[in-house]
Amino acid sequence: MIAAMRSEWLKVRRPGIIGTTLVTIVVLSVAAAIVGLHELDRPRAKANVTLYSQSDGFRAILHHSTDFLAIVGLGFAAFAFSTEFSGGTLRNLLVRQPKRLTLFAGKSVVIALILAVGVLLAYVVSFPAALVTAPHYGVSTALWTGGDGIRSLFAGGGDLVLSTLGYAVLGALLGVVLRSPAPAIVVGLAYVFAVEGLLTNSFASLTNVLFASQLDAVSRGGTVDVGYGSALLVAAAWIAGAIVVGGIDLRRRDVAS
Amino acid sequence: MAQAPSPGPVAIRARGLTKRYGRRAAVDGIDFEIPSGVIAGFVGPNGSGKTTTIRMLLSLVAPTAGQAEVLGAPIDRPGDYLPRVGALIEGPAFYWWLSGRRNLEVLAALDGTPASRVEEVLAIVDLMDRAGDRVHTYSFGMKQRLGIAAALLPNPSLLILDEPANGLDPAGIQEMRLLLGHLRDHGVTVFISSHILSELEQIADWILILKEGHLLFDGTMAELRRRRRTATLVLVPERTEQLDSLVSVLTTNGYMASRNGHQVHVDDFAGTGAELNRRAIDAGIILEEITPVRSTLEDTFMAMTGGNSE
Fold it and tell me: Which residues of A touch B109 (CB under 8 A)?
């Protein structure tokens, strides 16, 4: 698998690819933090100064970046996996590494590392940005840098990475099954942002079951509807299922294009 | 199907190899053996099942039925033989945003091929000057050469090339022909599909002809040549007013003669020109020209497949 990782790294280590991905994540995360603070000015805003002034205030602010991190995670993975099929490059790789699962495991690790580094970098850069901007909206940041604040900071970063990687697993599965970038990305985003929303609005109990709801709860450290531990467990079950389905498809389906 | 004696151990063996898509058989129970150390040509019209067969041999596609062995290992254990196989399948496919050299490094990293080998194969296909440029700036012929370089990376015992001459200019085709001959001389088995039949006629020792998933021929090139349609003989009498008389004399004697402008064509002729000359002289006709027109591999292929050469 190390060889597969090295091969994948050679593909993506171009400054253009890594740089564009990281800069996009960082810039949009900082923007999301500022948008989160700006929301305080909106009438009937869900957030309030008291909430943001808590020790986990920064985490609450950065929650606004979850949706776009879902898009990045899902889209990046779906593109990376599906283009190997649609571009015809997979057949070259499989002649050199016929163990398909090993090949894709190596690829997955590299994709996951890039996304994790991107999310953490965005988190780290957004923190001082939020620290500087928050007082202008009347938010006190004193508790953010206290003991509980630092613990919340680390937990929030980890949960955001987990949530983004969860979306990436969905993107990878769709990339492997659909084998073409546009359908994989469109179907993934349509499910996360439309289908699941419709389902949970119609059947509230599904909030405890459906995949994107669990990832959303994980990124927040748990919600009123879905506890953190439960969300983590259910999301892990979905991810395990996705890996099994993707693995079976990968092993059994012909590479004919 | 006649089997010529194998000059060496078998490089590829297929028994009842079949691939069905629904009710349609893309490859229908083919049996063949390709000995080691030969250049084996694989020809057939479009849709005849050549690429599907190659995909099965490379374990990219699972057979519906039948068995095949490559370099002594069954195709359901690709890890046992693919490290010794180089392949160019369905034209070159590369990461357009990477250079030619980096594309080869990506493949080399997968099986631990040393970086020095990348430079070697780039030199072999004459791409050193452009190796640092992104692949999207390459012509199709350059991409094809890069594909051949990728196939050569593992220093293969068996090279499988699917239409490798596509996009190459005449000089490139000549270089490839020399390269394949050189590899064969060094013990590499080359399995090459092509619709450029004249190319195969010049370089292949062994030939397989496929049509609609069925194998029509599997044997040596020499054997195929023996099966070629009998030659046509073109006769030109000294006096053109004797053309019809010549046709009449020959048809009376059982030859398939017909007038064609100022010539007489004798088709499916297996004898000698002297034999016809004697008949003509006996009838008082002096022949100015006797020209045998030998059928090519392409003619034979057309006759066997009853279709075009594509």
Answer: 3, 6-7, 10
